[in-house]
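Write out the bound-state structure for zinc ion.
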Amino acid sequence: MAEGITFVCDQCGRQIEAWEDGNPYFIDSQGTKRYAYHPNRERDRCSGNDVPHICLTCAALFMVDSGGPQGRCNECKSSHIIDTFSLGGQRCPFCKIGAFEPNSNSRMVS
Ligand SMILES: [Zn+2]
Ligand SMILES: [Zn+2]
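---
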C-alpha cells in the first residue's frame, strides 16, 4: 500500500501531489527501464526508484533516479531540490512567500 499526500501552499494555493514510494523500476532483459506500479508482481525485481523532486528555485518538477547521483535541478541547475514527499514546511517556489503544508483532507491511498 502506498500513501500519498497533497501539499498545498498556504499563500498561493498551489498544490503538489506526492507519493511515498516514488516510481520503482527494474531493468528488463532488453535493458529497458520499466516501471512497476503496484499491484505488480515485478516489484520484487525492482533495482531502483525514480523519485519525483521539485526545484525550490524555479519550481520545475522532475524525476531523480535513486541509482544515479543527481543533486541539481534539470532546468536551472540549482541545488535547492527536494523530493516532493518532503515538501512540508518548505518555501513555495511559485509565489516565494508561502510554505507548503500537507492538506489533511486529501490523504490518498492506492
Ligand atoms: Zn505559494
Ligand atoms: Zn530549478
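---
The radius of gyration is 15 Å.
The longest strand covers residues 48-55.
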